[in-house]
């Protein structure tokens, strides 16, 4: 039975089959289910989502959704920690090789064809961005994380955008949904006309700027005082693919956000519910959605009231029961390696 179940139910606890979802939800609602009901969905026993009732072995009781979320979060945390360690090692290696290359740089001058270049300091980042802007002839793709963009930031890079528009360069920008509420962004897009097309998502990856699909800029540290200039064709093509897939999932800025289909639950509250179900704390949720922690907590309070939950644990159960524990519609969560710090750095605009 176990072998056949593994073949028919090839999934983990983070994505149950339809039959498993129905039975586990029923077990959570009723407190237990007959052992015979699990014969067609052995995955619930294999994943330890159901276990025997010690008072009556003919019945199975559910593992609490909070415990399941904690178990999943622990696995994700281990993966994120490993990724962060690898990223730290890579940055350290870049710095080490950069130090070794200073003598060669002094003898031969800057390496014009470098596939990966570390830009240390805002002035070097600014100069490299200006150079890439001047050389750009066809297309700029950008990802802008965070919330509402301040008008000062938009004004700072406006000269670049106008220069690109003057050469007929097309621009496509990805923002979070929160950016829709910024009047500065709306004014900027009106000024740029059909030269710029903008779309939004619940979450985006960290800042990314691509010029003519030949050179890309990404942050190299959390405060964005360092950046990587990437010219390796394989790396640039990979980032273009990431952008294009997010773009297809995004919603045009001129189109309204879709209704959740659940009375009393807004689109943003649905996004918050999905991240709560993943086990994230309020500060992490606020950062990923580009809102303040205070606003995030206000939405959580309203969500609890709407769903009739009196505790955080009960809210997790209610979220699972009504089906708010996944991002729908919208893209999957961004990888943790692409966090979105609050601080800003020079961009193409």
UniProtKB/TrEMBL annotation:
GO MF assignments: DNA binding
Entry-linked SUPFAM superfamilies: C-terminal effector domain of the bipartite response regulators (SSF46894)
GO biological process, one term: regulation of DNA-templated transcription
Lineage top rank: taxon: Bacteria
Comp. bias (Polar residues): 340-349
Limits of the HTH luxR-type domain: 258-323
One Pfam entry name: GerE
Annotated region (Disordered), positions in chain: 330-349
Matching InterPro entries: Sig_transdc_resp-reg_C-effctor (IPR016032), TrmB-like (IPR051797), Tscrpt_reg_LuxR_C (IPR000792), WH-like_DNA-bd_sf (IPR036388)
Protein name (Swiss-Prot/TrEMBL): Helix-turn-helix transcriptional regulator
Source organism per UniProt: Streptomyces monashensis
Phylogenetic classification of the source organism: Bacteria, Bacillati, Actinomycetota, Actinomycetes, Kitasatosporales
């Amino acid at each position: 039975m176990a072998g056949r179940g593994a073949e028919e139910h090839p999934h983990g606890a983070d994505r149950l089959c339809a039959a498993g979802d129905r039975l586990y939800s029923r077990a959570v609602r009723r407190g237990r289910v007959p052992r015979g009901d699990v014969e067609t969905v052995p995955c619930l026993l294999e994943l330890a989502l159901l276990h025997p009732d010690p008072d009556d072995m003919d019945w199975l009781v559910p593992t609490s959704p909070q415990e399941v979320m904690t178990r999943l979060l622990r696995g994700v945390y281990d993966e994120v920690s490993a990724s962060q360690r690898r990223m730290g090692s890579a940055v350290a290696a870049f710095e080490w090789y950069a130090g070794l290359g200073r003598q060669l740089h002094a003898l031969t001058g800057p390496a014009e064809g470098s596939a990966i270049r570390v830009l240390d300091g805002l002035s070097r980042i600014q100069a490299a961005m200006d150079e890439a802007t001047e050389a750009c002839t066809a297309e700029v793709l950008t990802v802008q994380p965070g919330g509402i963009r301040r008008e000062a930031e938009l004004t700072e890079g406006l000269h670049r955008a106008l220069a690109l528009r003057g050469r007929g360069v097309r621009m496509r920008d990805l923002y979070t949904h929160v950016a829709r509420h910024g009047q500065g962004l709306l004014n900027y897009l009106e000024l740029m006309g059909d030269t710029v097309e903008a779309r939004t998502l619940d979450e985006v990856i960290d800042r990314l700027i691509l010029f003519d699909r030949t050179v890309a800029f990404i942050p190299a540290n959390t405060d964005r005082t360092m950046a990587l200039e990437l010219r390796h064709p394989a790396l640039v093509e990979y980032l273009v693919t990431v952008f294009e897939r997010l773009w297809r999932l995004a919603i045009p800025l001129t189109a309204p956000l879709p209704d959740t289909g659940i009375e009393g639950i807004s689109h943003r509250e649905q996004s918050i519910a999905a991240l709560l179900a993943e086990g994230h704390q309020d500060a992490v949720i606020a950062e990923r959605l580009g809102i303040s922690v205070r606003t995030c907590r206000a939405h959580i309070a309203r969500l609890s009231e709407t769903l009739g939950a009196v505790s955080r644990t009960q809210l997790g159960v209610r979220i699972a029961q009504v089906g708010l524990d996944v991002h729908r519609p919208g893209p999957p969560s961004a990888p943790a390696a692409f966090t979105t710090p609050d601080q800003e750095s020079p961009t193409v605009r």
